[in-house]
Amino acid sequence: MILKELASKYIVKAERAVKDMKVSHNPKLVDAKSIEEVTDQASRYLHDAKFYLEKERFETSLASVSYCEGLLDALRTLGLIDFSWQEEILMNNKRKIVLATGTFDLLHYGHVYYLTEAKKAGGKDSKLVVVVARDSTVEKLKGTKPVIPEDQRKAVIEALKVVDEAVLGHEEMDMAGVIESIKPDIVAVGHDQRNIEEMLRRCIEEQGLGVQIMKIGRFGGEELNSSSKIKRKIVERYTR
What we know:
The chain is α/β, with parallel strands linked by helices and about 240 residues long.
């Protein structure tokens, strides 16, 4: 059954290539008639592949479709025809992955704005993956633990409509490890994430990664646009 599935898959792929191919011959290199003879031969191999598939001679069917693909690839390499294999089309239309990071303690609209703009940065049908900082990481960087525990902060971020996936970060600040595991096309950094932005730029430069950094601006005015300001506001209101 495996051979049958493989033969069927490659026949569909070859049929699409034959249907979509366009001749772009160079008369100084080869004449159009010679190209036609080779493409006709490729079509005959494709016909044979379908014939042997019906006869349940799956190995012969696979061999025939392989000959077809080989001829088409040779012509394309020489620049005599133009087409794309199905895998190449899918790769070109690949859904972009956008990575966003943060603590997200005491979630507020500034967070929502940042994540919404991050998702937009990837274009239509992009996938937004959010890395939520671990409690231990926040304590090392800021000197205090977040108000909301990491599993709850992750659950809240995960519940946002704009977020496709939320994961907890590494115990240590390991941007290279995060990029390696998520493989983003774009990393969105907030207006107040200067340290993360610098680490990202070093990591991308050192490893020669094709990752784009997109900086997201601040939303609104100064009032209550960060978790620390919200905490101060609460303290002011209830300690008078």
